[in-house]
Amino acid sequence: MASMTNLDNFKKELRKYPFVVLVGNIVTEEALPSYHSSINGTEIFHDKAGVDDTPWSIWARGWSAEENRHGDLLNKYLYLSGRVDMKQVETTIQYLIAAGMVKRETAIIHGNTASLAKQHGDANLAQICGIIAANEKRHESAYTKMAGKFFELDPNGMFIALAYMMREENRDAFSFNV
């Protein structure tokens, strides 16, 4: 019975701020694991089957799983509110996922949502988004360190890889068939 009371209180609190912010957060999380597939399909990483035991492959699978959990948690939170047409949210995500966002923006968005939730008395959502924001900051730090190491080891190769990824990302951003 206490769980139902908590859910009712949760739904009342969720009414106090815009759902569009939370939907935007879900879009950022849902897009990120798709990058894992794109990166693993390159000649540099060669983990096309997703079972390689290289440090990169192991790390990338863990990262992708964590990002998936972020999206799932936010998705379930919205679903339990009963205030959002989740079919519309999922359809919107399919169309917006190509736009993507980088880690810094993702961390800022989740941090801002945590602050907004806290201001409106929703401690659960504030904690969820705060934890996700902290994870995104860790990811940004890891990417920065990896890129720095790659530039140190092979500056020419890193510039070529970076140019390739930017070209592919821009070309592929609108090629999803949804």
Automatic annotation (TrEMBL):
InterPro entries: Fatty_acid_desaturase-2, Ferritin-like_SF, RNR-like. It holds the Pfam family FA_desaturase_2. The keyword Lipid metabolism applies. Its cofactor is Fe(2+). It comes from the Eukaryota. One of its GO terms (cellular component) is chloroplast stroma. Pathway: Lipid metabolism; fatty acid metabolism. It is found in: Plastid, Chloroplast. Keywords: Chloroplast, Fatty acid biosynthesis, Fatty acid metabolism, Iron, Lipid biosynthesis, Lipid metabolism, Metal-binding, Oxidoreductase, Plastid, Transit peptide. GO terms for molecular function: metal ion binding; stearoyl-[ACP] desaturase activity. GO terms for biological process: fatty acid biosynthetic process. Belongs to the fatty acid desaturase type 2 family. This is Stearoyl-[acyl-carrier-protein] 9-desaturase, chloroplastic-like. It comes from Ziziphus jujuba var. spinosa.
